[in-house]
Amino acid sequence: MSRVSIFRREHFNAAHRLFNPSWDDAKNQLVFGKCSNPNYHGHNYDLEVKITGETDPETGYVTDLKKLSNLIKDQVLSKFDHKNLNLDTPYFRHTNPTAENIAIVIYGILRSEIDSGLELKIRLYETERNFVEYPAGEGS
Amino acid sequence: MVFLTRVEHFNAAHKLYNPDWDKEKNEEIFGRCANENWHGHNYELFVTVKAEPDGGTGFVIDAKKLSDIIKDRVIEKVDHKNLNVDVEWMNGKICSTENFVVAIWEALLPALPSAVQLHSIKLYETPRIFVEYFGK
């Protein structure tokens, strides 16, 4: 058996807005700039789900990537794809949908669905140049 | 004649919705793209101009100047905006990438120097879906 990391890449297209409801418009504009447009803007998000563990001696898999893809589609993409993250999902009613918070939410959704013996890490690209990783650092 | 292309990008929300149809028909035709609360994309915009290279500079056009024109006439109007609500040149139009690329052409054409011709605009809505317009 060997310890290997496997990756599944998916994508979703969504609208969002960054703002803090405790602040006035001027402060939101100052801190978040164009990202606080009250009429929303959007992104093609690229999602990488990284699973690390020992290969199964019978299958040679860390985990079945097709099953992982189905899990991500059922539990994440169905909730976020072609949606408005602020308005259409329960996760961001009181949480700012920054890339950081979206990655944390996705981790939370998937963690309980994946074998606890496997490490999980989420990388989320908001654009080609801006991406986040959670949990940060080595391991999970 | 040499073609020069400048690539810019912007992030925007939109929805595909025909106001003459009811909600059911919009959802039937446009599927998830008809979400009333919008969805979004990172758009990639390729603007191609053509001319003979200038004898003094060797340029078709100074690429930095072309970038400034595109930013002034297009990017500022659409980046981090809602294409259905915030962009005047999309008023009354269905916000498909096809209609959008034609509107971008019309916004950009008058701002280009007479020494170059606008050859084409290519607009990626996603890495797998893009449109191209040649002005006719």
What report would you give on this structure?
The complex is a heterodimer of chains A (140) and B (136). Chain A is an alpha+beta fold. Chain A has helices at residues 25-32, 65-80, 85-88, 99-111; strands at 3-16, 41-54, 83-84, 119-125, 131-134. Chain A has a five-stranded mixed sheet. The radius of gyration of chain A is 17 Å and the shape is elongated. Chain B has 136 residues and is an alpha+beta fold. In chain B, strand 4 (117-126) and strand 5 form a beta hairpin. Chain B has a five-stranded mixed sheet. Chain B has one domain (2-133): Tetrahydropterin Synthase, Chain A (2-Layer Sandwich), CATH 3.30.479. Chain B is elongated, with a radius of gyration of 16 Å. Chain B is built from four helices and five strands; from the N terminus they run βαβαβααββ. At the A-B interface, strand 1, strand 2 and strand 3 of A face strand 1, strand 2 and strand 3 of B.
Question: Outline of this structure?
Answer:
The complex is a heterodimer of chains A (about 140) and B (about 140). Chain A has about 140 residues and is α+β, with helices and mostly antiparallel strands. Helices cover about 30% and strands about 30% of the residues of chain A.
